[in-house]
Amino acid sequence: MKQTNILSAAALTLLITACARPELPQQNGWQPAETVNDFSAEGRIAVKLEGKGSYANFDWTYQNQVQTININTPIGSTVGQLCQDNQGVLAVDNKGRTYEAATAQELSNRLLGFELPIQYLHIWASGKRVAGAPYQLLPDSRLQQFDWTISRTLNSNGKPKTLLLESPKLTLRLAFDNLDDHPEGNTQTQCAARK
Question: Keywords of this protein's UniProt record, alphabetized (predicted)?
């Protein structure tokens, strides 16, 4: 897999059309994220870049301020992993090659030629906005922040059903099959792929 496909597959896996369960729009006004609770999630991601789309499955954990997103094929094989911890960001491809940078912007620019908002996904998925950063709330309850327009729908239990991120170049849609906001304890404090 080419380096540029690692993050594209990750982004695409997060974006996919929502299932038939009832969806409710974001309700809380995108409050500033002072903290984000730990969670684990799985679902599908779809990515649309310059009119071309792709999709994949994902499993995602955010625990102890370590964010790990595995991008998987429909049969469950991992094709790539993105991980962010307090030391920076890592991408691991399906051949075990590791790519590292200090920030998500730097890594995605290097591998893809544009920025992916990996460092903010857990905040937006939680229905919050990045505190201390410029933003705008649109009349239809969408959030604009960092050149992205973000919308979120909730299922009947009030948990995220979809997260849609749109920019002039790229659209990402994550459809959540499951989100556990009380995952079992994990003592890991850095990316597992970090040597």
Answer: Cell outer membrane, Chaperone, Lipoprotein, Membrane, Palmitate, Protein transport, Signal, Transport
